[in-house]
Amino acid sequence: MKRYKALTWDHPRGYNALAAAARLPALAEAGIAIEWDKQPLEGFESHPIADLCARYDLVVLDHPHVGEAVTSACLQPLEAVFGNETIASLEIDSIGPSLASYRFGGAHWALPLDAATQVMALRADLLASPIPVTWEDVTLLSKETGKVALSLAGPHAILSFLSIAAASGEPPAEADPDLLVSESTGKAVYELMLDLASRSPASVCDKNPIGILGHMAQHDDVVLCPLIYGYVNYTAPSSGNPIAFHNAPRSGTGGRPGSTLGGTGIGISTRCEVTPALRDHLLWLLSTQAQIGFIPAHDGQPSSRKAWHDPEVNARWNGFYRNTADTLEAAYVRPRHDGYIAFQSKASALLRQAFETRAAATDTLCALHDLYSEHRTAGGER
Description:
CATH topology of the largest domain: D-Maltodextrin-Binding Protein, domain 2
Keywords: Periplasm
CATH superfamily of the largest domain: Periplasmic binding protein-like II
CATH class of the largest domain: Alpha Beta
Protein name: Membrane protein
Number of domains: 2
Structural class: alpha+beta
Organism: Phyllobacterium phragmitis
Distance between the termini: 40 Å
Pfam family, one: SBP_bac_8
């Protein structure tokens, strides 16, 4: 029996489907066993990928880690494991940039098991007005109710900043990888977030997305969170109130729903001996059969475009996929150079401090740009 050690993140969406798949009789019959361990969400977002790959054969990761992984030479390129034709086929099947986000330095480094991006979460039973479409609508609801929360803990302050900039027509560091955002766009985004942060309920200020959604399900002091990573599980919770998810806000009607891509991919560490049985199992996880049937049935969030538009999947999860698919298709892909993860953590801390002290936009943007330049690898690829 060939045994593999694997690591994912500690949430039903990240663990249950993988663990259930590892228990399927077909694996034992093929002579392999996969043991999935879990790490907290914060570790998934920031733990050094090389350290994880030194201890595990399979590692569930976020796409901004790929630059760091390439520098550390700790992952196997998917083309070498599965072949170019298979990867091209997966590219067609994956929704939005789910697979493309793992491409760096001429190769792909993780299989897109799970697709997610920032979307709008709300308590439909508490919302007296129409569902907001634009950031102007969100601001008005915030002023009227005081119950609009920003997701700012961990890396999420800067992720929201990037998303609003993308909605404003300037996806950060896209036209010029050395420039995070222009002064005019950065100032507008900062002032919008500063205004919303001043009224964001204190009850969720230190919570990660899972914490915010859990709070919203149990309490009535947060009606809406305009940018938060979507978790299908909260549309039909075992306890508490259901959360409804809709497309991220736009700068204006008809504009792009600004959102920063999340989701997870399965990376294969260089310590892993890939047998035909393991290869077949990993590809099965991305098959139409698994993506539409097995993964949603085990609390997972599929990456297949077919699954996101499947009527039965949407009926089971109250339209979560259908209501947010446009946002995922247009999601912004973060820089992936080595050093980006460190920037993300420090930039979020910087923004939280600026919101707390009501720092001037010019000073904050200057510090943000300095931080980005400091962690930008010279000549690095996005």
